[in-house]
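INFO  loader      accepted 1 record
INFO  loader      residues=137
INFO  predictor   begin
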Amino acid sequence: MKKYLKYIIGLVIIGIGSGAYMYYKPHQNIKSSKVDVSLSAAEVFQAFEADESAANTEYLDKIMAVNGTVRDVSKNEEGIVSVTLDAGQDMFGVICQLDQLTQHAREDFPIGEKVSFKGICTGMLMDVVLVRCVETN
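INFO  predictor   done
INFO  writer      dumping tokens
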């Protein structure tokens, strides 16, 4: 039993060290990150609508620059602002959730305004969703 004890203690120390590293690891700065893919909101939505699994392979967890026309703006209970971009569909679009870790120049976007956002694609539920978005000029 004593010879297994040192292996168990070693594994516990490695586990604690790995957990602390992941917990204190700094968040990725979206504003200064390099864009992996640049598309319009309609192109992103059409790619997911045509073949969701292929679009997931190509876009999921990548930093995307998306531009389009504001269709809706909302704020949830946690205070996260979501801007829905028109994707040429009546009911669906591309939702860009503003990053809570970034100071934004503005959080109000008039409906019909053309905007560009950069964020991380998390896939398609009914709308295509980008999180941690920042407005680009």
